[in-house]
Amino acid sequence: MDDSDLFASATRLGNGRRPLLGLTILVVEDSRYACEALRLLCLRSGARIRRADSLKSARKHLQVYRPSVAIIDLGLPDGSGSELIASLASTTPRVSVILGISGDENTQTTALEAGADGFLAKPITSLAAFQNAILTNLPAERQPVGPRSVTDEAVVPDILAFRDDMAHAADVLGEADNERSLDYLAQFLAGVARSVGDAPLATAADRLARIRKDGGPIAVETAHIADLVQERLERKIAI
């Protein structure tokens, strides 16, 4: 089903207060904290959100419907989001707006070269930046009606979503029996830590990524990360 056909009438176009009204946004994101931020941004903007936490889940969604906008994390548990970006960018009819997101700004080039229309660096909390990234690339016929008020409002996700991410990290640590799992864990924790402002966790994740890249021993660093993750789970409140 083509989602854009469902909201073609002017009565479903965005307006100054809710500029993304009538749009359905597929968020492909494995972090519950980042996804909660995007859910709040969609809610404030009038858009509907559907979520997938992996490439496999996203492809199942796309077999059923075509969203107006796709926001795709570059680091997913079963592969790189750039694969999905490239697939959507070459599909006809094309999704109107495709955005890449990541906690690593160095991946912006990867997203754009794969065919993304734009890129958002985590943390994604600014309502104005979120709306502008979509509206800048939206076709003229889908633009909101009338003037749009610009606000510097920022959303604050529920900290319990961060705890869900720590539980996921603990699960990955428990099953990290191959190099790919460790690479995924490092980038996942780095993105989550930056989103929530957890400097010690971000530093540890970056250190693990560097050690993996250099081929050094990882036992000490993975044990340290396991301690940090467990501490945050036990505290229940992350920061």
UniProtKB/TrEMBL annotation:
This is KDP operon transcriptional regulatory protein KdpE. InterPro entries: Bact_response_regulator, CheY-like_superfamily, Sig_transdc_resp-reg_receiver. SMART domains: REC. One of its GO terms (biological process) is phosphorelay signal transduction system. SUPFAM superfamilies: CheY-like. Residues 24-137 form the Response regulatory domain. It holds the Pfam family Response_reg. Keywords: Phosphoprotein. The gene is kdpE. The modification 4-aspartylphosphate is found at residue 73.
